[in-house]
Design a protein that fits this description.
This protein has helices at 42-48, 71-79, 118-121, 126-138, 157-173, 199-216, 246-261, 283-295, 302-331, 333-337, 345-364, 369-413, 421-443, 453-499, 505-528, 535-560, 563-578, 595-607, 609-614, 639-642, 647-650, 656-686; strands at 28-32, 59-65, 97-102, 108-114, 141-147, 184-191, 232-238. It is an alpha/beta fold and 687 residues long. The longest helix is centred in the last third of the chain and has 47 residues, at 453-499. The structure holds guanosine-5'-diphosphate and magnesium ion (MG). Belongs to the TRAFAC class dynamin-like GTPase superfamily. GB1/RHD3 GTPase family. RHD3 subfamily.
Length: 687
């Protein structure tokens, strides 16, 4: 049970109990308990120790040795840790398992392996073997702790332990080609060194024993030639008796401590080659995985373990990187979905992406490179597919916005009369495409296969449709304007010539018509030049102008030949001949005057006008006006023009029945004049 409370060695930091969870925030932790279960709290403990983000900038040391040889005492002295030490007074066995502490003032994790002396007590060696595997897979240095009097006892428990360590190490690193970077330091600490036998002699004895053990190992055939020094560096040190020479003991411990803490010490123990290259943030999971393999007696394959660790950690790191990224991406999803063009979306997306990647790279790049790269590609995929809808949405919105602006620019450009349609379209189109291209390119992530060209193509088509519609509207407007002008100009000559009925009346009208129309057509063409219309469109427009001009002429003629109007004209004509003499002086009838003859003459002359009005028929056939033969098929959405019409039929102004009707009505009018004339002679006689 981990001890609660604050230990004086704890980096001077005092933790508030409120911040503690399940006791795991203690400065030491039992990572493997007596039931050989691995703790679930190591990860958070490493974080509490402040080592989680250390990368490779940390070290791990483990201690091995027989029970009650002062291992925990040594570690506490060297590293300022607080491992349990056997109580002197009742000599109770301390808790078994593997404990871990952070060294005071060093980025070092220290493992205290509390085993049993299986050999001496006849207990199982299972734990010892597992602990050795576990420690070798993670530690840079194994401190082998032994009494001076154990040196040379080749058959002793220590030698059994070392045999186990060697065997296990062969299994772990035996096949490794790279012995220069896969080494472990065995640091022998000889306790209760009396001094009569010099350390050099003790080292010699131990080295000889180690060689014997190594040679006695049954090695696989391909590893027969491997030497102990291919895998291990050996170092020996001795400490005086703690009870008999306490001051010397303390001084010895201090000297040894500086070999761990002082990088400038020429005997500094932590060499890069010893490091197992597990990033600090993966140590807990790695150890847990190793222990699980060890526990289930599976073959411990370190490269596989490292790859598994890399997969697990890279996934974790990626999902942390993604979490923040997703929040950022989400912030712009709504505006994009709502149809907004988000300004600087591309640079936002690039920021989120590079932030996520650098978060991932910072932590994950320390792991197995293949795994790191593979997971990075996955992460990139997720990032890009998260951002892709934003990009596509932005394009759609940009497309819409550009089209709206294009329409507005067209309207604004066509305000007033002094504009050139083609220039207005060209300017608006250029502005539209430029903006789209710029903003679409801004939104694109350059390391993707995203494209916006298709969307631009769609936009172009719609812009063209709008421009075409505007052009059609403009054409229609110009046709209407031309039509109005022609109509206005036709009015006077038609009235004039129809009033003074003469045999060449129609020649005059048609000539005037021809002239006005030609002028109208010319004006139309000059104004329509900026529409960039096709030849065919111009031909069609002119045909419409012509047809409508003809209809205008016809309606003016109809107006001037309406019953009352034409009867008025006839009456005027008749009166001029019957009531006035050839000098334009009003006629005063005398009884001897031939009223009957004059009346008949004026009446018949007047009636002769009716056939003249009845049909548009110039006396000079060359003045005859003909409409283009396809005039009837033209269309400019104009119902008036679309109506089927028969040109020959439009030449007829008054039908036979109409003429009969008009002549009988005129006769009645004329009769009235006759009666009035007769009456005036009677009254003059009566005077
Ligand atoms: P561990 O079981 O190997 O971890 O040993 P402990 O550190 O718990 O110590 C076991 C006993 O040995 C304790 O009573 C210690 O006081 C005592 N002890 C510690 N260091 C030394 C030493 O250097 N020499 C001797 N003779 N006794 C020691
Ligand atoms: Mg102990």
């Amino acid at each position: 049970i981990p001890r609660e409370g604050i230990h004086p060695y704890m980096n001077g930091k005092i933790r508030s109990p409120a911040g503690q969870a399940n006791g795991s925030t203690n400065d030491r932790i039992q990572i493997v308990d007596e039931q050989k279960n691995f703790t679930t709290d190591l990860s958070s403990q490493i974080e509490q120790w402040g080592l989680r983000d250390a990368g490779f900038g940390y070290n791990i040391v483990a201690v091995f040795g027989s029970q009650s040889t002062g291992k925990s005492t040594l570690l506490n002295g060297l590293f300022g840790t607080n491992f349990d030490v056997m109580d002197e007074t009742n000599r109770r066995q301390t808790t078994k398992g593997i404990w871990m502490c952070r060294a005071k003032g060093m980025d070092v994790m220290v493992m205290d392996v509390e085993g049993t002396d299986g050999r001496e007590r006849g207990e199982d060696q299972d734990f010892e073997r597992k602990a050795a595997l576990f420690s070798l897979a993670s530690s840079e240095i194994l401190i082998i702790n032994l009494w001076e009097h154990q040196v040379g006892l080749y058959q002793g428990a220590n030698m059994g332990l070392l045999k186990t360590v060697f065997e296990v190490n062969l299994g772990l690193f035996g096949k490794s080609q790279d012995s220069a970077s896969q080494r472990t330091l065995l640091l022998f600490v000889i306790r209760d060194h009396i001094g009569t036998t010099p350390l050099a002699n003790l080292s010699g004895t131990l080295t000889a024993d180690l060689s014997k053990i190594w040679d006695g190992l049954s090695k696989p055939a391909e590893l027969q030639d491997r030497k102990l020094s291919d895998y291990f560096d050996l170092s020996f040190t001795a400490l005086p008796h703690k009870i008999l020479a306490p001051e010397k003991f303390v001084a010895g411990v201090q000297t040894l401590r500086s070999r761990f803490s002082d990088k400038d010490n020429e005997d500094f123990v932590f060499k890069p080659a010893y490091h197992k290259r597990i990033p600090a943030d993966g140590v807990a999971i790695y150890m847990e995985g190793i222990w699980e393999q060890v526990q289930t007696n599976k073959d411990l394959d370190l490269p596989t373990q490292q790859e598994l660790l890399a997969q697990f950690r890279c996934d974790e790191i990626a999902s942390v990187a993604l979490a923040e990224f997703s929040e950022q991406a989400k912030s712009q999803r709504r505006p994009v979905e709502a149809g907004r063009v988000v300004e600087g979306l591309g640079s936002l997306m690039r920021d989120w992406k590079s932030q996520a990647l650098s978060r991932y790279d910072r932590d994950a790049s320390r792991y197995h490179q293949d795994v790191y790269k593979r997971k990075r590609a996955d992460l990139l995929g997720v990032i890009d597919s998260t951002l892709s809808p934003l990009f596509l949405g932005q394009l759609k919105n940009l497309h819409k916005s550009c089209l709206v602006t294009f329409k507005k620019d067209m309207v604004a450009g066509m305000r007033g009369d002094a504009y050139n349609f083609a220039d207005v379209v060209a300017a608006a189109r250029e502005k539209c495409e430029k903006r789209f291209t710029q903003e679409a390119e801004e939104a694109r992530l350059h390391d993707t296969d995203w494209v916006w060209e298709d969307e631009l193509e769609l936009l172009r088509e719609e812009v063209k449709a709008v421009a075409d519609q505007c052009r059609a509207d403009e054409t229609k407007k110009l046709i209407n304007l031309t039509d109005r002008n022609i109509r206005k100009q036709l009015s006077e000559p038609v009235e004039l010539h129809l009033n003074t009925a003469s045999p060449d009346m129609w020649d005059k009208i048609l000539n005037a018509y021809k002239e006005i129309l030609e002028k109208g057509e010319a004006t139309y063409l000059s104004k329509a030049r900026s529409f960039n219309c096709t030849e065919e469109e111009n031909t069609r427009a002119l045909a419409t102008v012509r047809k409508r001009a003809w209809l205008a002429l016809r309606s003016k003629i109809d107006e001037q030949t309406a019953d009352t109007v034409i009867l008025g004209k006839l009456r005027t004509h008749f009166e001029e001949r019957f009531r006035y003499d050839e000098h334009g002086v009003p006629q005063v009838w005398k009884p001897e005057d031939d009223i009957d003859g004059a009346f008949k003459k004026a009446r018949d002359q007047t009636l002769e006008l009716l056939p003249l009005y009845a049909k548009i028929a110039p006396s000079d056939p060359s003045a005859a006006y003909e409409l283009p033969s396809d005039a009837g098929t033209l269309s400019l959405d104009d119902a008036q023009v679309d109506e089927e019409f028969d040109f020959a039929a439009t030449l007829l102004v008054l039908s036979e029945t109409k003429i009969m009707d008009l002549s009988s009505r005129f006769r009645k009018d004329a009769d009235a004049y006759y009666v009035e004339a007769k009456r005036s002679t009677v009254s003059s006689i009566a005077q």
